[in-house]
Amino acid sequence: GESVGLHLPTLSVQEGDNSIINCAYSNSASDYFIWYKQESGKGPQFIIDIRSNMDKRQGQRVTVLLNKTVKHLSLQIAATQPGDSAVYFCAELANSGYALNFGKGTSLLVTP
Amino acid sequence: NAGVMQNPRHLVRRRGQEARLRCSPMKGHSHVYWYRQLPEEGLKFMVYLQKENIIDESGMPKERFSAEFPKEGPSILRIQQVVRGDSAAYFCASSPGSRSNQPQHFGDGTRLSIL
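Structure tokens for the assembled complex are given below, as produced in the milestone run.
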């Protein structure tokens, strides 16, 4: 069946360092992926998305890499800031074409 | 603020009561999705609605749960005869369409607590 999972439940980085959050998925037919950031008490906030016909996409301070061969997705955050502290979820578009399957999340803690 | 609006933000109910959760999608969005999140877990899809139509309710329990998105007004997720296991955060998302190049944008959720 479909599943999306994250390798590390928590990640602690120093301010200014780069962060890498990883995600594995099992549905080889998945063609759309999204990274969300969720702060305490708030809803998931869209960060960046990528389609399966791409292997890399860049945004402001963030880069998403997609490796379809090993079904792996990563989110890179450059020059991590305290405001980046949150739980990060990867999500894939389910076979339905509209429902999102979320992983469990990685908690990112940025220390000064 | 033209974001997805959910209310109430917090809702406390006793076992057996009804819970009504409301969601107003972003302006121009006609597609609404409800998800449930348990503590320290990812969101789980419940139901997908377009105006006046339920497209997919496969993630929603068949008993006690219902959803609607009327022509006028917000989408409503209704839970009848609530039980302790219904305690969770319920999130609504909206999109202008269902195509994969139209990401879902989420509200800040309703935290439901059952006493």
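Residues 28 and 69 of chain A are 9 Å apart (CA to CA). Chain A has no helices and eleven strands. Further analysis is deferred to the final report.
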